[in-house]
Structure formats: C-alpha cells, structure tokens
Amino acid sequence: MPAHRPHRRTTTTLLVTLALAVTALTSCSDDDTPTSVASKAASAFASATAEAGRQFDEIKGGIDAKGSVQAGDITTDSDGRASVDVTVENTTDSTKSFAVQIDFKDEDGNLLDASVVTVSDVAANQSGKGTARSTRDLSGDVRAEVERAVRY
C-alpha cells in the first residue's frame, strides 16, 4: 500500500485498543472506586485517541478537510453498535481520499468511543460516503461528531 494511505492494521489496532479498554472497565474489582474507574476510562480513551492520531500521522501531504465532512444521524446496527453515515465532499479537480475520525459522545460531551473511517477515491467535484461504527454497544443519548478529517 502507498505510504500516504492509512493501513488497515492501524484501524484494527484502534478497534482492539478500544475493545480492551471496555474489557478493563467492565472487570472492576472491589478495590476500584469511582475515581479509579474514571481514571482508567480516561487512560483507555487517551490511548485510543493516540492510536487514531498515529493513523492520521501516516498520511503524507494531507489537508485538513473537516469542513468538507458531514455526519448523519446515528442508527443502531442489528448487533447493537452505533453507526453513522459519513459524507465527504471532494471540491478539488482530482480524485482524493479522506480519513475521518468520528467521536461518539454522550449528552454531556463525554467521549464514549471513537472510530476512523476511510473514504477512498472520491472523484473530482463529487461526494463519497462511508460508515463509522462504534466498537461496542452504546446506550443513551449518543451523538456523533467529526473530530478531524484529512483529504489526501
């Protein structure tokens, strides 16, 4: 794969990191306090966010494209995971690809999950679609926000 494209292995690593974070958070011991659980959650999501950052760092020559991306309404897949359609607009005169990080947040703005989706080979002056999907079941009032996007 060319050096400017994100690797599928990196996306898989992000998903595994988030899954491990969920496992760690749901296997609390009697010694865990609300503060220690919150600290573990913050650490796990910081790690997942760092992994997403590494994926974006692999993109060479990328241009900020957050303004060219829209997230649709959240739906729940048949397996209970949240998903959101992502639409990217290529306003250039050549074919481009996009990497988009979607953050799934609760009603208070707390990070619940993160997903990176790649929309490849969007034709000049056209739009493309992808789907960002949570790595675990999310409940309550979940919102999807475009955290960052890069066109390359």
Automatic annotation (TrEMBL):
InterPro entries: FxLYD_dom (IPR047676). Residues 1-29 form the signal peptide. Keywords: Signal. This is Uncharacterized protein. It comes from Streptomyces chartreusis.
